[in-house]
Amino acid sequence: MEATQIEKRVERPEVEERKSDSDFMRIAKYMGVRLVLLAITIVIGVYLAVLIANMGGYVDEIRKGVIKEQVGMQIRGNPAYEDLTAEERQKLMAEMVAQEIRRLGLDEPFIIRSFGFLEQALTLNLGRAEYMTSDTGSKQVRLILLERLPATLVMWGASNLLVFILSLLIALGLSRKYGTFFDKMIIALTPTSSAPAWFYGLFLILIFAVVLEIAPFGGLVAAPPPENKLRYALSVLRHLALPAGAILVSSVPLTAYNWRTFFLIYSSEDYVDMAKAKGLSSSKIERRYILRPTLPTIVTSFALLVITLWTGAIILETVFNWPGIGKAYNQAIGLYDTPVIVGNTVIYAYLLAITVFLLDFIYALVDPRVQVGSGTGNQL
User: Fold this and answer.
1) pTM of the entire structure?
2) Residue 253: which of 157, 163, 160, 155 has the closest Cα?
3) Of 165, 232, 294, 373, whose Cβ has the fewest other Cβ atoms within 10 Å?
4) Helices 141-176 & 325-335 angle (0-180, nearest 10)
5) Distance between CA atoms of 219 and 319, rounded to whole angstroms?
6) What's the gap between Cα 318 and its chain centre?
7) What is the domain partition of the chain in residue ranges?
8) Which of 187-196, 267-276, 278-287 ranks highest by mean pLDDT?
9) pLDDT for 306-356, tens place per residue?
10) Would the pLDDT of 286 be above 50?
11) 88-147 pLDDT, tens digit each
């Protein structure tokens, strides 16, 4: 009997090692499948953006018209061509227009060039913008977007983190004090979440920047920017206060109310009453038997909220003159700068894909019922 137990102890590490390798392979396989599916989704979405931005090739006809107009003005304004007859001018104009069209690749069918645009878009190798420039004066689309991406990540990263923390804390507080004045007040404020963040941003600018004069109207940092790193960071936080506040006012009441409902539902379960009967502390019951079972639903709800907030970045960044990709998107649409429009679409596609990809694994971590890549149990 003792010998059998010793053999089992010796074999156990090997079994655990094989199980660990098997889990790693399942996770790696699952990651690969998810990445492939997300990549296919991004490719389809970006290709549709290319088609829409070029209006199925109609933009090419507009560009050809612009080329003809520019060449005609160049010929008429050049004294060297004054002695040419009308036929010679028309022939010269046709040759110059054809040369420029060949140089730009507009002589090929749009459906063929669209796949080249797709490859360039996915690698952000979109060449030069037609009208917009970067802060350094470059017209390279990649530089224009990469210069503005950090500002967007700072604002939306900090704001979404605050939304999650405040909503979670408020929801837990409401579940403990169901029916109190604070609970009723949050319920009364939930309709305010029907308005987008930029709507509240206008009022916050009016109150704190115009009337009280305690906050800046917009921008990322004071002008001129402070040279000291600490003062620079404090200036960014000061400018971040109003846009982050607008996002909080728009998102927190309804999010906290929804999560508070989840907490109330789970707090009425039989196993919670049993835990109370066993004499467990309120904090332990809340953490183990209420918060943990609701995390999958909360994570899913928060991810959908993040995706929704991303779509409002264009207007909110424009309202606060925040130098991010949302504001650049709005400028590119106004100028009809097609390369920048497509590049912004690609950036948003990548950001949303990363959000969904991270959600899958966070969901698997917080929900013990999910078996990543296994053949049994619930799967993502």
Assistant:
1) 0.69
2) 163
3) 165
4) 130
5) 10
6) 16
7) 147-366
8) 187-196
9) 777 766 778 888 899 998 888 888 888 888 787 888 888 888 778 777 777
10) yes
11) 778 878 888 888 777 777 777 777 777 877 877 777 777 788 788 888 888 888 888 888
Q: Read off φ and ψ for residue 265, nearest 5 degrees.
A: -65, -45
Give me the DSSP letters along 17-73.
HHHHHHHHHHHHHHHHHHHHHHHHHHHHHHHHHHHHHTGGGHHHHHHHHHHHHHHHH
Tokens (6 digits) for 332: 């590119």
* Cis before 224 (ω within 30): yes
Evaluate whether 267 touches 275 at the Cβ level (below 8 Å). no
Q: Which two tokens stand for residue 85?
A: 């007859």
Kindly list the distances between the CA atom of residue 240 and the CA atoms of 217, 230, 330, in Å, as whole numbers in the listed order: 11, 15, 20
Question: Are the CB atoms for 120 and 126 separated by under 8 Å?
Answer: yes
Structure tokens at 360: 């899958």
- ∠ CA 222-223-227, nearest 5°, is 80
Say how many residues make up the chain. Answer: 380
Encode 254-281: b = buried (16+ Cβ within 10 Å), e = exposed. Answer: bbbbbbbebbeebbeeeebeebeeeeee
Q: Contact 216/234 with Cβ under 8 angstroms?
A: no
Q: Which CATH architecture has domain 147-366?
A: Orthogonal Bundle (1.10)
Q: What is the rounded distance in angstroms from the CA atom of residue 334 to the CA atom of residue 327?
A: 11
Among 170, 168, 169, 163, smallest CA distance to 187 is for 170
Residue carrying structure tokens 């206008």: 202
What are φ and ψ of residue 128, in 5° steps?
A: -100, 145
